[in-house]
Amino acid sequence: MNTALLYRLLEADPAAGPAELLHRARADHHLPQHLPHLVLSALVRDGVRMGEPARAELRRAHDRVAHYARLAADLACSTGVRAIRGLPLAGYYPDGLLRPLDALDLVAPDEAALWQAVIRLVTEHPVEHIDVSLLGERPHHTAVTVHWPAEDPLVDPWYRVHLTTAALPGDGSAVPVRPYLVADEHVECLIALAESRLHRPAQPPGPVTLFDIACLARRPFEPAETAAVLAAYRLAPEAATLLDHAAGHLPLGPLAAVRAALAPELAPEHRRRTETAATRRFPTRHGTLLRRTVIRHAWDEARLHTPAPDTPLLLTPVADYLLTRTPATPTTRTAALQALHHWDTLC
User: Fold this and answer.
1) Contact 7, 208 (CB under 8 A)
2) Model pLDDT for residues 235-245, shown as the tens digit of each residue
3) CA-to-CA distance for 313 and 305, rounded, in angstroms?
4) Which of 51, 111, 127, 239 has its CA 20 to 30 A from that of 169?
5) Rg, Å, the chain Cα set
6) Which one, of 31, 30, 54, lies nearest residue 42 by Cα?
7) Which residues, listed in sequence order, are joined to residue 143 by a DSSP beta bridge?
8) 112 CB-contact burial (10 Å; exposed 0-12 / middle 13-18 / buried 19+)
């Protein structure tokens, strides 16, 4: 957990100094946008001198994470949602080392809690975009992402809060939606990291993910129990691949025994996926925004309205959408708007 690990991960020459390390973090567009904040915080811990622009950038990054933490705490108290993935992982980083957060991930116990949280965000922040998706068919799960600009959007990314009723969305095929995530927090973090590999199987884990593993490696894991939990969540192959890659860069500590315990779980999971992929699909339907609405405070769920087979509408407490699996055509959008206006006249 030191700057030397960052030099190795970014393939930077330590002799070139911290400026080259920071340049590497900024230059590769395949790396996370917030990676420079991790680098800056590591350099501060090493006592590297830096000017006011760098200190100001790091200060804003700390403020961003603190803002996300306050949001998560407030929404947990008022609606029952809880943070998963990034924010809990940040809690395992050593003092002074900043885990970058490009978004706040929250899971809701049910749809009513999700929309209560969305309404709070829309009411209290200058939200400009609200993305909605439905995962699976019967029953479906809801995912909502709200976006609003940072205080200075010219230099800082927008705030982004992702809320869902399904903690683990799966891959839409052989790995299904798993709505509940119940384990010790550090085990949940490992599960979340493995889940992220489902969507980027060919892309090696990035520096932030490997730092996450380094932080988790300082926690106690019961090997057989952890491997069984990962297998139950259908993530044994992703966890094994992630730990194998991490082992090439850092000591795994107790996670090495977890990796060994995963070995007998791999073949059964690969076999299950092969048998399942051809017969089961878990499609995601994305919402094309038709209009923002006044907040429908009386609604605790979204409503599906299908005036025609090709124009399924999703009416939510904050906006109305056309549900599609592919981008909506102008003709389909026009028909959806006409159906929506007709629905208005009936209400």
Assistant:
1) no
2) 999 999 999 99
3) 5
4) 127
5) 22
6) 54
7) 133, 164
8) middle
pTM of the full predicted structure?
0.93
Q: In what order do the strands lie in the sheet with 303-305?
A: 82-84, 104-107, 159-164, 141-148, 129-135, 284-292, 319-324, 313-315, 303-305
ω into 139 cis (within 30 of 0): yes
3-state secondary structure of 29: coil
State the residue for tokens 């600009």: 149
Check if the beta carbon of residue 274 is closer than 8 Å to that of residue 299: no
Judge whether 171 and 195 are in contact, CB under 8 Å.
no
How far apart (Å, rounded) are the C-alpha atoms in residues 282 and 141? 11
How far does CA 29 lie from the centroid of its chain?
Answer: 19
In the chain, the amino acid numbered 146 is V
The tokens describing 23, both together, are: 């340049």
Look up residue 275 and give its amino acid.
E
Return d(Cα 175, Cα 47) in angstroms, integer. 46
Residue 43 amino acid letter: L
Helical spans, DSSP H, in 106-254: 111-124, 185-197, 207-216, 223-232, 236-247
Instruction: Write out pLDDT tens, residues 136-159.
Output: 877 789 999 999 999 888 888 999
Percentage, residues of the chain above pLDDT 90: 75
Degrees, nearest 5: CA angle 166-172-178:
30
Q: Which of 271, 285, 277, 325 has its CA nearest to residue 173? A: 277
